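Feature request, filed as a ticket because there's no other form

It would be nice if the structure record came with a short human-readable summary line next to the tokens. Right now we just get the raw output. Example of a typical job, pasted below so the devs can see what we mean:
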Amino acid sequence: MNTALLLILPAVIVAAIMTPLFVSLKRIHDKKPVNRKRAVLTNVISFFGVLALMTVIPFTGAFADSAQAAEAASGLAEGLRYIGAGLSTGLGTIGTGIAVGGAAPAAIGAVSENDKSFSKALIFVALGEGVAIYGLLISILILFG
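Raw output as currently delivered:
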């Protein structure tokens, strides 16, 4: 019973995620109007629904004994640590890009009008880049702290 469920489960998951796409393709083939925003939104919602279901109900732990379940839980904790470290660095870098993208052109314009404003402009650009350093620092603390 457990082996049959493990073999069928991936096919059910893929079908749940891909069904909105297949419905849209069928409507295009039948020359019926397709609301593409709705199709993409339905696909994204089904993907995250399956993702949430897999997070809440880890099927691999349901078929393992207690020793394997404890090992899987420690592996999950380590994986979530890596996800947290990646998110802190990635989102910090995106924030830096947004900050520098606005501050650098303004700094260049200020320096082109008045050469004495170079040090102030440099400070504003460096403040934006500090966000990436904080994100990296948080990642290091998550991984090695």
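Something like this underneath would help us a lot:
The chain has five helices and no strands.
The longest helix spans residues 66-113.
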